[in-house]
Amino acid sequence: MTGTPRQPAVAGTFYPAQPDRLRLLIATLLDGAAAAPPPAGLELVDVLGLLVPHAGLTYSGAVAALSWELARRIAPTTIVLAGTDHQAWAAGIGVWTGGPWHTPLGDVAIDDALAAAIVELGDPFAADDAAHMTEHSLEVQLPLLVQACPGARIVPLAVSPRLGTHTQAGAMLGRLLAHRQAAGERLLLVASSDMAHYPPVRICEETDAQLLEPLLRLDPDDLRAREAQVLRANRPGLVCGLCGIDPVRVSLAALSVMGATRGILLGSATSANAGGDPNRTVGYAAAAFV
After folding, report:
1. Does residue 28 fall inside a structural domain?
2. Which of helix, strand or coil describes residue 233?
3. Which of 54, 110, 182, 185 could form a disulfide with 137 if both were Cys (CB 3.0 to 4.6 A apart)?
4. pLDDT in tens, 41-74
5. CB neighbours of 38 closer than 8 A, spacing ≥ 6?
């Protein structure tokens, strides 16, 4: 582990900062996910990537745990995390090349060699630790990751809304990851995004269903078009269809190159399911890509 470590930015807000409380919460979430019936026709050996939500664990943790419980059974050695750059700090795709990420449950090491190889792909990939310092979309995954995949290394990617070359960037990343998988590396690509933001619960569920259809078809361009369509409809309260549409579009393009042909929905919910205001909701979904 080389370089400056990343300190937690949202411990105590998005998840408990106290190790004992956090460990109990994560165990409860993963146990609940393990008890859920597995999707029909899902073979672990075929899973190349996952979709996870990234709200506070009180709200989205049960859905996120469905993906991380699957990751536990896959046991990857390296997990490439593609997350939303909410503040648009990165110019394109900012690659973390610093030291380990600290969590209340222990450190998560970086796959330095893979991070360097991704940077070497060139534009729009660039070393950019600053883009990750206060961003929560990947940090909230780490307590689940630490417990589900102990010892796994990560490569964090901050995908900016300023990126204009999603499918091209995804193809570049996909070719690199496919080459490494062919050499025997156990890799998993994980995209972090919440779904519809702030409409009443019925509209949230309808919007999520509309956007999950192209997402599960691995069609990044239709996903963008569908989100634009639902936003033009001026649905009450709706401000976005996916806050992480940028990392999701890059990941879908990468996964297609890696050999994935479809997504399988593992579960979905809204913040209202966790006690949130049903008139102002956020949607969450977990999926596996095979």
Report:
1. no
2. coil
3. 54
4. 899 999 999 999 999 999 999 999 999 999 999 9
5. none
Handedness of CA 115, 64, 152, 76 (dihedral sign): negative
Count Cβ atoms within 10 A of the Cβ of residue 3 and give its class: 0-12 exposed, 13-18 middle, 19 or more buried. Answer: middle
Taking residue 282's Cβ as centre, other Cβ atoms within 10 Å add up to 24
**Domain containing residue 153:** 45-275
Which H or E run includes 25?
helix 19-35
Is the pLDDT at 2 greater than 70? The verdict is: no
Rounded CA separation 250/90 (Å): 15
CA atoms of 114 and 123, how far apart (whole Å): 16
Per cent of the chain over pLDDT 90 is 95
Q: Is the residue at 29 inside a domain?
A: no
Residue at 169 is within a domain: yes
Estimate to the nearest angstrom the gap between the alpha carbon of 273 and the chain centroid. 21
Q: Please name the residue ranges forming H helices in 98-150.
A: 112-119, 142-148
In a domain, 290, yes or no: no
Our count of domains for the chain comes to 1
Tell me: cis bond preceding 200? Omega within 30 of 0 counts. Answer: no
- The pTM for the full model equals 0.97
The CATH number covering residue 55 comes to 3.40.830.10
Give the span between the Cα atoms of 131 and 96, in whole angstroms. 8
Exposure string over 27-56, b if 16+ CB within 10 A, otherwise e: eebbeebeeeeeeeeeeeeebbbbbbbbbe
Give the pairing of strands 283-289 and 263-270.
Answer: antiparallel
Structure confidence by residue, pLDDT tens digits, 172-231 = 999 999 999 999 999 999 999 999 999 999 999 999 999 999 999 999 999 999 999 999
